Amino acid sequence: MSWQIERWPNIPPEFGSMINRKTEEIGAIPDAELQDDGSFVRTVLPLRDFVLYPSLYTPLFVIEEPTLQAIESAIRQQETMIGVALLDPEIEEPAVEDFYSVGTEIAVGRLMHLPDGSISIMAQGRRRVEVLEFFMQEGALKVRVRPIEEQKPQTTESAALMRAVLTLFEKCVELDRNLPEDGYIFAANIDEPGLLADLVVSSLEIPISDRQLILETFDPIQRLQQMSILLGRELDVLELEDEIHARVQSEMDRSQREHYLREQMKAIQSELGEGDFWAQELDELSSRIDHLNLPDEAEVRARKELQRLNQMASLSPEVTVIRTYLDWLIELPWSDSTVDTSDFRSVIQIFEDQHYGLKDAKDRILEYIAVRKVAPQKHKQPILCFVGPPGTGKTSLGRSIADALGRKFVRISLGGIRDEAEIRGHRRTYIGALPGRIIQGMRRAGTVNPVFMLDEIDKLGLDFRGDPASALLEILDPEQNNAFSDHYLEIPYDLSRVMFITTANTLDPIPSALLDRLEIIEFPGYIEEDKIIIAQKFLVPRQLEQNGLDEDEISFTRTALQSMIREYTWEAGVRNLEREIGKICRRATRRRAEGKQIYKRITPSMLPRILGPGQVPVHEIEPEDALGAATGLAWTENGGDILVVEALLVEGKGNIQITGQIGEVMQESAQAALSYIKSMVGPLEIDPELFERTDIHIHVPEGSIPKDGPSAGVTMAVALASTLTQRPVRRDVGMSGEITLRGRVLPIGGLREKVHAAYRYHLKTVILPKKNEKDLVEVHRQARTKLDIRLVDHMDEVLEIALHPQTAQDKPDARRKSRQNTLTSRFLHK
User: Fold this and answer.
1) Whole-angstrom Cα distance, residue 45 to residue 107?
2) Most buried residue among 151, 170, 539, 552 by CB atoms closer than 10 A?
3) Is 23 a residue whose pLDDT tops 50?
4) Distances in Å between the alpha carbon of 767 and those of 191, 687, 735, 736, 798?
5) Average pLDDT of the chain?
6) Cα angle 663-667-672, degrees, rounded to a multiple of 5
7) Long-range CB contacts (< 8 A, 24+ apart) of 670-673?
8) Burial of 612: CB neighbours in 10 Å, binned 0-12, 13-18, 19+
9) Is the pLDDT of residue 645 over 70?
């Protein structure tokens, strides 16, 4: 059966008038006669990127000369040809192995020259053939083939498959703009399964391998099944293409609609005389840039970004990024500044009104004002670092400095910062990028010369995101910060007129390179007298005001404040003291709200009733002179304290045991003290055999608190000497100093706090290294006056001051008063 399609697939219009006559000529060409073995020989017609199926007509365009000669010969001889597709259409001169193994017997009509100069023939597929061999004959490529008998099943399965294929093909025709609408009509009129599959596959734009697969599928049922798979895959692609096209078309329609509406808005605004809002905003930005006194580089960058903004649509995503950048450039202070106060009296008055003490910090600011007044163009801004325990007024003094100078004040906390970008900012390539905290602080200040406080600089972190402390090197260097580079701005910014003040609790965590750039001003802890004055002058009035009380409604006695300092707070600063005062004020406000009588005068006896029992254990000196118990002076973060060192002799073999959770340095000090005492057995009248018969136990009470440092060496030596010589230690003598094996006393740190602790605990004599004499200027004058401060160079002087003289009549009495184990006395008198 032959199926004739006039315009399917696409046939040139000028070819249509001759199609009937040509198909009649092609139909007159007989099929090849079979030889005895069921095969026949015909000339090969190579097909490039094309497969011709049985019973279908199609025009073929001839390009190659050898193929043209073979076609002319077949037309003259009224013979069919064998069309075989090439495995690779790009091969110019195909060999035998470059052809597929299944082809189609075709009949060709005469040649026709088209107006564009090409040559076309009409070809009709006759039947499938299987290639047996290729060979050359008379200069032409011949092929021996065996025809494949076409089956025509008419079963329920074939009908169902045909209906499924037609359904899929209909959807493809609807979605594919290259398929003619009448393609489905032709396919619906076919009642043969195999022919339907051949027609549908010839209509689709699918790879040559899939076309050849259908040709090589001889069973019509399997061919329809395979065709269903190919149609399903092609339908998925067409549906995706249709979705993309619809989305693109929708976006284009929306853009066109927006453009139309925008043009209408422009026309309406023009009629109302309002102008374009976007254009107005751009003009405003340009005007602001004109009126700013920007540096050359900043102005060039601002103009460039504004030009980019002018070339963009107002709804472009990039507009927000550029507009934010321009806002930062415009709103940063580039030249606006405040005038520094040069009136010394007003500055001093502000300091005295807001802070008590802190002489070094106040003097440094007064020196700065003096130099600025004499040489305003030559002096550089100081980079100060306030170091001291919490609550000593470091941050509040920075604000007072700004008030005294008449400058803006900006504070940022560096505690816990681990990312360098927090300091230098993020680059604009990141979504949501912003400048670093330094530039953000300058924007808040609004001037180029604020007081900029970097709080908690000792608590900077460090991880894989960078080292923030290293980023501060440029900021805190007067030689470099005149051209600070923020990653977001990407242009230099002058920080040379900023007064930077940093704060820290300790200097140990600060890198040495950063510490070298800082001018250190120490904030020592307040002594008891200082705290009482601060409470009376600042804390009590502030808490009365905050809790709605008048100054004449409630008052605190000096002894009450003293008890609160000693029993309810343990700190170098005054924060906890202010909290306790605030608690009493709140209790008074509550009683007034309840209609009860409030306390008029706060005395020490009232504190347990209001604040509860004391929270701080009160240390006391020894009640009497004792053997092996020496009072040392210690430094803590909360100020100075006393530390009792106990030494005891027990029966043993000459070992030494040290307890009280002390560190390695303190243990080494104990070993050095013992070695020194052993070397002095003669002058101290100690039996040398005593060290072999007894063990020495040194204990520092309050074992839950870690202790370390070399300054307890003198105290340990005194405790050991007292135990071994049976000479009691004077209870009212405190001491501190490092000891060497030769008995020399070396200088120690924290002298101010230690002397103040001795004064607070009412000691009478304090033994200190002579080399610390220069540090006594830091000690409160009242403490220096009340205490008998002895400066020593050697342990001989220490023992003479700290121990009672060794006399025959004192020994029994000393043994009676001591808290030594009774074994000690027995060993000493053997």
Assistant:
1) 11
2) 539
3) yes
4) 122, 28, 5, 7, 7
5) 82
6) 150
7) 670/698, 670/713, 670/716, 672/713, 672/739, 672/740, 672/741, 673/713, 673/714, 673/716, 673/717, 673/720, 673/739
8) exposed
9) yes
Is 50 exceeded by the pLDDT of residue 66?
yes
Q: Distance (Å, rounded) from C-alpha 11 to C-alpha 61?
A: 11
DSSP label at residue 770: G
Q: Quote the pLDDT of residue 740.
A: 92
Higher pLDDT, 825 or 51: 51
Residue with tokens 């709804």: 315
The rounded distance, in Å, linking the Cα atoms of 675 and 685 is 15
What backbone torsions phi and psi does residue 619 show, to the nearest 5 degrees? -80, 145
Please give the radius of gyration of the chain, using alpha carbons only, rounded to the nearest integer: 52
3-state secondary structure of 440: helix
pLDDT in tens, 390-419: 888 888 888 888 888 888 999 998 888 888
| Pairing mode of beta strands 519-522, 383-387 | parallel
pTM value is 0.59
Q: Is the dihedral of CA 670, 676, 682, 683 positive or negative?
A: negative
Catalytic residues: 711, 754
At 102, list the tokens.
């299944």
Any idea how long the chain is?
830
Q: Average pLDDT for residues 796-818, to the nearest whole number? A: 66
How many Cα atoms occupy the beta-carbon half-sphere of 124 within 13 Å?
25
Q: How many helices (H) and strands (E) does the chain have?
A: 30, 25
* 24: confidence class by pLDDT, cuts 50, 70, 90: low
- Tokens representing 18 are 């001759």
The per-residue DSSP string of 35-60 comes to -TTS-EEEEEEEESS----TT-EEEE
pLDDT band at 791 (very low <50, low <70, confident <90, very high): very high
Joined tokens for residue 244: 């993309």
**Strand, helix or coil at 563?**
helix
Q: What is the mean pLDDT of residues 585-593?
A: 90
Residue 676's nearest CA partner among 717, 716, 630, 648 is 717
- State residue 618's pLDDT score: 66
3-state secondary structure at position 817: helix
pLDDT at 96 over 80: yes
Q: Cα–Cα distance between 421 and 435 in angstroms, integer?
A: 8
Q: Per-residue pLDDT averaged across 221-240, rounded?
A: 86
Highest mean pLDDT among 371-380, 544-553, 762-771: 762-771
Residue type, 545: E
Taking each helix axis as running N to C, give the angle between helix 277-291 and helix 317-331, from 0 to 180 degrees, rounded to the nearest 10: 30
DSSP string, 277-309: HHHHHHHHHHHHHHHS---HHHHHHHHHHHHHH
User: Burial, 530: exposed, middle or buried (Cβ in 10 Å; 0-12, 13-18, 19+)?
Assistant: middle
- Residue holding tokens 């596959």? 201
Q: What is the arithmetic mean of pLDDT over 445-451?
A: 90
Tell the residue number behind the tokens 């009691």, with chain if given. 728
d(C-alpha 275, C-alpha 273), whole Å: 6
Least confident of 61-70, 220-229, 339-348, 665-674: 61-70
Q: What is the 3-state secondary structure (H, E, C) of 674-741?
A: HHHHHHCCCCCCCCCCHHHHEEEEEECCCCCCCECCHHHHHHHHHHHHHHHHCCCECCCEEECCEECC
Residue range 303-311: average pLDDT?
A: 81
Letter for the amino acid at 151? Q
